[in-house]
Amino acid sequence: VSREIARRDERRISMSSKIAQFPFVRELDGFDFDAQPSLDQGQIRELATCRWIAHGDTLLFLGPPGTGKTHLAVAVGREAIRQNYNVQFITAATLVATLAKAHSDGSLDKQLAILSRPKLLIIDELGFVPLSKTGAELLFELISQRYERGSTFITSNLPFDEWTETFGSERLTGALLDRLTHHVSILEMNGESYRLAHSRARKAKT
Known about the structure:
The chain is of the alpha/beta class and about 210 residues long. The protein has helices spanning about 1-20, 40-45, 50-55, 70-80, 90-105, 110-115, 135-145, 165, 170-180, 195-205; strands at about 60, 85-90, 120-125, 150-155, 185-190. The chain is built from ten helices and five strands.
């Protein structure tokens, strides 16, 4: 019986992970904490318990590209699925394009309702692409709808003081941060890029 339950659980996790649209499979045990000494491993393990999701809190991971933000976002997302939370993973660029399309074809309310449904919404790579005024306003609208209803996990390559460059408006950035940072855990990853370190190590061997 226990083997059957385990199999059923595996199927559920696999199906839910497909629905979540993770870009790849990553687990916490595969993360190289030695490469990111600025990270508190205990804090990451605590976040993986997903208690913050039960409270509808927000999670922000800030740091330069290649430091493992997406790896951790996927790993925490998979832990959330294991604990029966429904999860959606999307890049900021895709999210804003989806909202803009819905806005132009008259289905914005429906799209906002769909994106407000997951208990955990992971928005990856905020800040890589500056947003149009409409795009920034639509993202703010979504964050407002999810506020204190579901948890949002955002990864960004930009520190807060540079977010205005992405959103194009100090007023909008301030209002967005006001909502995001009401119940929040913020992790700053200041280590070197994994990819850079690995390519250097490979070159050193040749």
